[in-house]
Amino acid sequence: MAVQDGLIKVRASVRLLSTEEGGRTDPIKGGYRPNHNFFGPDSREMTIGLIDLPDGVELRPGETMDLTIAFWAWPGLVGQIHPGRRWSIQEGARLVGVGTVKDVLE
């Protein structure tokens, strides 16, 4: 796995939960920095990750999009990132989306 400048970059499929599922009420745009939980629903061990949407692009609740995400690489996370790996996207303790790694970028 390539770690550059302290970051692990991936191409991932991200689905925001719909408002009816308890997700956000508004779309995300630009740079969005939610919590990323790779360790299960009871874990409070999260990582920082930037979901960077191109200018003019929005991801609305209930939608799925393939995106590039940059995670801060720390020792406990490095072994968790691989194609097919699923994780939770959270705002605090609230689940707002799910992601699946498609490719780890060099």
Automatic annotation (TrEMBL):
- Superkingdom, natural source: Bacteria
Q: Record keywords: Nucleotide-binding included?
A: yes
Instruction: Write the record's keywords in alphabetical order, separated by commas.
Output: GTP-binding, Nucleotide-binding
Under InterPro entries, the record lists: Transl_elong_EF1A/Init_IF2_C
Per its record, how is this protein called by name? Translation elongation factor EF-Tu-like GTPase
The species this protein belongs to is Brevundimonas faecalis
